[in-house]
Amino acid sequence: MSLDAIGQYQVKRILIGLLPHSLPPLLFYLAHIWGVPVYRSHFGAIAKAFGMGMMVELLLQLLIIVSFLLALLPGLKVKLGLIGALALFTAWAMFPQHPIRGYVYCLLVTVPPLLAIWLTHWLCQRFLSMPAADTP
């Protein structure tokens, strides 16, 4: 089974994109692990309305799924839509009961994936050349 030039380009684009898009879930996890003690020291106890541990775990799992989809999908509008949907879900789940955590987690689910999209685009421009379309 051989791939044409466009198929090879897409496979290489996905493989290059897997590394940058694996970083946002890692950054989310590290920021959560290191940020909880800082939050406790500045704002007091964590438990207020509902168990935040399950919500953060759900957000991490959703971020892993979205990051994987971002590496696979080629269109920028679809990628931005996925990130926007994840940010809206995060805002819906956190506000108004947890405004500080809402801002932080919304930032954690939007900025690192956007930077991963930019990094993937830059790496693809630097290391891949788009194949010319065949014209009859």
Key traits:
mainly alpha, 136 residues, 4 helices
Question: Which SSEs are present, and which pair or pack?
Answer:
Blueprint lengths: L4 H39 L8 H21 L3 H19 L4 H29 L9
Helix pairs in contact: 1-2, 1-4, 2-3, 2-4, 3-4
Question: Can you tell me about this structure?
Answer:
The chain has 136 residues and is mostly helical. The protein has one domain. It is elongated and about 60 Å long. The chain has helices at residues 5-43, 52-72, 76-94, 99-127. Helix content is 79%, strand content 0%. 21% of the residues are buried. Helix 1 (5-43) packs antiparallel against helix 2, helix 2 runs antiparallel to helix 3 and helix 2 runs parallel beside helix 4. The model has no long low-confidence stretch (mean pLDDT 86). It has four helices and no strands.
Give a short summary of the structure.
The protein is mainly alpha-helical and 136 residues long.
Alpha-beta classification: mainly alpha
- Described by the principal axes of the CA atoms, the overall outline is elongated
Distance between the termini: 24 Å
How many strands, what sense, and barrel or not for the largest sheet?
A: none
Number of strands: 0
Unreliable stretches covering 5 or more consecutive residues: none
Number of helices: 4
**Helix amount:** over 70%
Q: What Rg is obtained from the alpha carbons, in whole angstroms?
A: 18 Å
DSSP strand (E) fraction?
Answer: under 5%
Along the chain, the helix and strand elements come as: HHHH
- Mean pLDDT comes to 86
Number of domains: 1
